[in-house]
Amino acid sequence: MTSVIFNDWLVTWDLELKRKIDLLADNCTAHTNNSLLKNIKVIFLPANTTSLIQSCDQGVIRTFIAHYRREMRARIIAELDDIQDQSDASAVAKKISLLDALHLVVISWKRLSEKTIENCFRKGGFSKTSAETPASEESDL
Known about the structure:
Blueprint: H1 3-16, E1 21-25, E2 40-44, H2 50-82, H3 89-94, H4 98-111, H5 114-123, H6 135-138
């Protein structure tokens, strides 16, 4: 990642957005502040906070991987049930294409609930203030 690539990506994304968002970014040297953005407010995390908020990443990633593995197992079992020869699971798994794997990624990401992501951010120390929480959501917190 370079600052040029990061800024080009940010500007392109900013033009596509139809609403204002806050973007949390690591304090990597490639992540520079572009004040010309209209829809994106970049908030840089303080230095050396990765270990403090890593549980946020780990929870989302762990849940995503669990969904992906479940989908992969289901795909392999379905394939084993359909074929008549004596193939084993590892032989079937090796036949899964990159496109198949990408489809499984999409399915797995869609199964990752908004609530799971919220809980992981909350565990990482990020939480909505009462001013940001709509009245209908307050009872869920």
